[in-house]
Amino acid sequence: MTTNNTPPRGGSRRSFLAKSAALAGAAVVGSHASGSIEAANILPSLSSRKGSVPKADEPIRMGIIGTGGMGGGHLHSIISLAQQGKTNTQIVAVCDVCDLKAEDARKAAAEKQNIEVTAYRNYHDLLKRDDIHAVLIASPEHWHAQHIIDALTAGKDVYTEKPMTLRLDQALAVRKVVLANPDRIFQVGTQAIMLPKYNKARDIIKSGLIGPAVWSQTSYCRNSTSGEWNYYGIDDRWQPGVNLDWNAWLGHLGPREWDPKVYARWRRYKDFSTGIIGDLLVHVMTPLIFSLDAGWPVRVVATGSHVIDKDMENHDQVNLTVQFEDGHTMVIAGSTANEVGLETMVRGHKANIYLNSRHCEIRPERIFVDDIDSERIECEDIGNDQDQLRLNWLDSIRSREAAKSNIDLASKVMVAVDLATRSMWEGHAFTFDPDKMRASKA
Prior knowledge:
Elements lengths: L12 H12 L35 E6 L3 H15 L5 E7 L3 H15 L4 E3 L2 H5 L6 E4 L3 H13 L3 E5 L6 H13 L5 E4 L6 H12 L5 E9 L24 H5 L9 H5 L11 H17 L4 E9 L11 E8 L4 E7 L9 E4 L2 E4 L5 E5 L10 E3 L7 H15 L7 H20 L3 E4 L4 E4 L1
Parallel strand pairs: 1-2, 1-4, 2-3, 4-5, 5-6, 7-10
Antiparallel strand pairs: 7-11, 8-9, 8-15, 9-10, 11-12, 12-13, 13-14, 15-16
Helix pairs in contact: 1-6, 2-3, 5-6, 6-12, 7-10, 10-12
């Protein structure tokens, strides 16, 4: 990830606070101290400068902001998809505040594609390039909002890693900019949305076969002997002020003394990440929210604990309850201390939908067995769902049709993510008013 040490042209960081709050139209209360959007700098205009769309016979030219674990994974996967003939795409630029990471990514992309690739430390230099059509953002969560907004207003199509933003006020500001630029393609990296079973479930629920969807459940659970996210290594070659811009990485969360653990394992720290909720649970919440089509989350309560990993600031066990506009309730569990999760299922008045495998299974309630047959609906094996999400975005750049994991879905997910995070830390239930786009303590 990289950024500039100075605010971009058009306004200071402080002036952005007032602008972004107005843009988002949200008076969000009770956020933790680090969660304020005073962090970011939206450019003065909501609308972007005119971006270029690739011609039918030319490659999509892409830049990547953030070349760490996820950014590197995207780089290699997209190049592989291009080499397989599944997309005509070239990665022509990479950007990171760490020169070592940026150069490793540049070298890999240049060698694999046999083209010239440029590495940047300042992401604004990448965004200034008129030949770049699209930008993939794989920076830490606290930079997502700024990078998304700056990329959109620079006229680029955007794929951002999940969660869409760190906090809800940032998400609402991003939403405002995305909606003001309908000609730009926007995708959030929650790949399970590509699994056909969720489309099947949505159709079944909409048909009324299972009756009203009463409540649902899902989870994302795994275990570790060494502490979650500690597998991200620390490189002794990192030298802040020499080959790494620590202050730029911190952005609005600085100043702070250099801490290689925070830099490498930021998901463990609550100022920089929502931990399990934003990094893991978004993967299971997003497709289920899509299937239910139950409106906005309107009430959220969550608990969290440090059961095993006492050194991690973020929790290693979380439990969420999310209520939606139509009255549906979703129960979600997340753990990095135990790998046995909940079944993924939707409980209807007449029947239940099970979504644990690749397929979609309907089982009637006992009192409706004479009216509804048990059924296993076979669903296509699409292979790597993350590659399918990447291809969906790249295909959308060609067709100019909306991508699958879009701003409306991502905004609803972020309401659940942010209110659950606040509920967990502050010990209150939170509500959200979709008409006013405002959150408050219950």
